[in-house]
Structures are given as structure tokens and as C-alpha cells.
From TrEMBL:
High-level lineage: Bacteria, Bacillati, Actinomycetota, Actinomycetes, Micrococcales
Source organism superkingdom: Bacteria
Protein name from the UniProt record: Cytochrome c oxidase polypeptide 4
Quaternary structure, from the entry: Associates with subunits I, II and III to form cytochrome c oxidase.
Keyword terms: Cell membrane, Membrane, Translocase, Transmembrane, Transmembrane helix
Enzyme type, top EC level: translocase
InterPro entries: Cyt_c_oxidase_su4_actinobac
Function per UniProt: Part of cytochrome c oxidase, its function is unknown.
Length: 133
């Protein structure tokens, strides 16, 4: 993970420098692209920070070990619910939000409510019903 974290640090630095250069190029008058490029740089740094934190918590992984084997990646990666309909509803809610940006605020608000409902349903899926802990 150390190599991947370093790559994301470099990518973030590139995008921060590119946003600054672009800002000077357009004389800081274009307010859609400049914050978006800064956001990409910031998100790259967030990924790099997460990878570093995961390395400190879990240690060196097989990818960074000179003698690492593919079989060392075996194991459980999480709990997944293949029968779940919540992600589909969340995707539809997000589609309604994007449609609301073009159509009107009332559609946007309906999308926000739907997305919030399906997000809470997905998060608390294993906390009620047949699969409750």
C-alpha cells in the first residue's frame, strides 16, 4: 500500500498544481473548473491518507512484500448482501437528484428524500428483520 499511497500523493500534487496554473491562466474568473480540479487533488490526497492509515493499522500487505504470494490475499473482505434492493433504490434516487438539477428544485428535493431513505435502509439492513444482529 505504500507504493499506491505515494502514487496518490503525487497525483494529488499534480492536480493542485494544475488547478493553480489553470486559475492563473483564466485569471481566476472561471468558477466551475478551478474548484473541481482542486477537489480532485484533495480527493487523491484523501485516498493516499487512507492507504497510509490502513498500512499503519494492518501492516505491510503482500503487494509491498518482496516475497509476497497471491495466496496471502485470501480471506473474507466483508459482508455483502446479494439479495439487497437498497443499492438499486439509491441509484434511482441519485438519478432523480441529477434530473432535478435540470428540471426543477421540486424534483431535486424528491430525489434527496428518496436517496436519504434508501441510504438509511441500506445502512441498517442487517439491524432489523430476519438478519438482525
Amino acid at each position: 500500500m505504500k507504493v499506491a499511497a505515494n502514487i496518490f500523493w503525487i497525483i494529488g500534487l499534480f492536480f493542485i498544481a494544475a488547478a493553480t496554473l489553470y486559475g492563473f491562466w483564466v485569471e481566476w474568473t472561471e468558477w466551475a473548473g478551478i474548484p473541481a480540479i482542486y477537489a480532485v487533488g484533495g480527493m487523491s490526497w484523501m485516498i493516499a491518507w487512507y492507504l497510509r492509515a490502513a498500512e499503519h493499522k494492518y501492516g505491510v500487505g503482500p503487494a509491498d512484500d518482496e516475497d509476497g504470494q497471491i495466496v496471502e490475499y485470501a480471506g473474507t473482505y466483508g459482508t455483502f448482501a446479494p439479495w439487497s434492493w437498497w443499492p438499486l433504490g439509491l441509484g434511482l434516487g441519485c438519478a432523480i437528484i441529477v434530473t432535478g438539477l435540470a428540471v426543477g428544485w421540486w424534483v431535486f428535493i424528491i430525489g434527496i428524500v428518496a436517496a436519504a431513505y434508501f441510504t438509511f435502509g441500506w445502512v441498517y439492513e442487517f439491524s432489523r428483520g430476519k438478519y438482525a444482529h
